[in-house]
C-alpha cells in the first residue's frame, strides 16, 4: 500500500518541520513494516495548489493523510477536494489539531473517508490494518499511554535535518493547566513524558548533525521542577553547540533553575497574556504580578534571554487594560514581546462560554475575537496597530539595549510611545526598521526641542543597529577585481555625532542619562570604519576622502587611495593585500 502523509506549513522556516507526519510514518513502519510504503510530502501556504497535487500524485498513493491546523485548513480542504474529484479511488484521511478540536465539521465536508481526532499514531495504524483487510475496526480511539512505544522519527531516519537547520523536539504530551483558550489540556490533562534514554539519544543525534536551533515542544517544561532541572543538565551536557527555544511557566522558576538555564544557549517564551489577575480569572489562569516580577528578575540576573506573550481581546479586558499590560511587560525588559488577538478555538472551554462572556468572533479559521462587551471593534483594531508597531520597532528593531533609556529621557510610558508610533508609521511597514526607528525617536525629541539628545539617539541606534549587528550578520562586500587589495567583508561605514568608543564606555559604566551623555561626550560628526578583525570589533574614524575611497570597492574598481591610507588600512585590518597570499598584511 502506498501512503502519502501531507503537511502544509505557514512558510519556510527552521520551525517548518513535519514532526507530526514523521511520527505517524515511524509508527506505521514499526507496526506494518513493508506492507505500507510511506512518503512525506511538505508544502507551504505560498506554494501553488497544482504543484502540491503533482507532488502528491507522483507518489502514486492509495491513501493520503492530511495534517490539518488552523492556518492551513482552507488550503488542505481545497487540495483534498481536487484529489477527490480527479481520483475518487484514493482514500483520504484527516488528522491534526483542527480535526481534534472540531472533528464534526471535517466529517461534514464528505471529503475524508476517515477523520482521526486526537493522537494519531494508533489510529492511523488501525485504519491501515482495516484497509489491508487485517481487522474490522477502522479506528482506535485510545491515546498512546506509554510514549516509549513510539519510535523516534529522528533516530529512525524519517526526519533528516541538514547541518544548520532546526528541529522540533517533543518531550511530553498533555497539560495539567486548564486555560480556557487552549485545547492542550482537553487532549489529555495527564502529563506523559518520552523516556530519558530516547531523549538523550535524540539530543546526541542533534549535536552530531550540527543543527542550529532546537524548538522544544513541551507546554509544561518546568511544571515538575526536578524533572526540568534534570533535563536542563542533560541539555547542557549533551547539547553543546545547540540553541534551545522553550516555553515555560514563570511561577515554577527558582534560582537554581534560572542558573541552569544560563548554562544553555537558550531563549524562553513565557505566557504572560495579561497583567490583570481579574481578567485572567475569566480564562482560568492565576496571576500574581509581584511573584511574576520576582521570578523574571531571577532570569534577568542570570543573564537568560526571555520573551513574553500578550493577548488582546480577553474577556473582561479593554484597550486601556491591554496597554497597561504592555507597560508591565516592557518594564521587565523582555528580549522580545509577542502580541496577538484572542482566538476562540473549537473544542476549547472558551468556545463553550464565549456567548455568556460577550465575545464576538470569527466562525471560521483563525477564529479571532472581533469584539467584546468591553473591547470594541475599533479598540481591537487599535490594539492590532500597536502590536504591529511594537513588533516592528522593539522585536525586529532589536531595541532592548537602548529602549529604556529613550523612554526615561522622553518621560513616556511604553504604551504612549507605541500608540504614537502606530499613528506615525506608514500603513505598509518597511522591511528594515533602523532608519524608521531613528526618524521616529528624533521626531519625539524634536517635539520637546532637544536636538542634542536626538543626535545622541542617532548614535545609540547606529551602534546597536549596525555595529553590534556585525557579529550576527556580517555584510558581504565584493572584493576589488583589479587590485591586490581586498576589503574586509565584515565591516560597515557608520556615521556618528559623538565618539562611539567613549559612548559605549560610559554605557558600560552605567551612565544612561541621555542629557548627561549628550553634554559630556565630545562631538566628532564623522564616519567610522566599523569592522570585525580576528573576532575583535574595531572602530576607526575616517576622513570624507577615506570613506569615499572604501565605497568604491563595491564597484569592483577602487579609486586612487588618499595619501598614506593604504598602510593604515592594512595595519587596521580594513584591507588585506591578496598579492602576497602567503604573508597577508592584515592583522
Key descriptive features of the protein:
single chain, about 575 residues, alpha/beta, Rossmann fold, pyruvate-formate lyase- activating enzyme, 3 domains, six-stranded parallel β-sheet, five-stranded parallel β-sheet, 23 helices, 20 strands, about 40% helix, globular, disordered C terminus
Beta-strand percentage range: 15-25%
CATH topology of the largest domain: pyruvate-formate lyase- activating enzyme
* Overall geometry: globular
Name of the top-level CATH class of the largest domain: Alpha Beta
Instruction: Tell me the number of helical segments per DSSP (H or I, 4 or more residues long).
Output: 23
The tally of strands reads 20
Reported for the largest beta sheet, the result is:
6 strands, parallel
Structural class: alpha/beta
Instruction: Give the % helix.
Output: 40-55%
Overall domain count: 3
Rg calc = 28 Å
If you average the pLDDT, what whole number results?
92
Poorly predicted sequence stretches spanning 5 or more consecutive residues: 477-482, 580-587
Q: Within the largest sheet, what's the order of strands?
A: 6-9-10-11-12-13
State the end-to-end CA separation.
63 Å
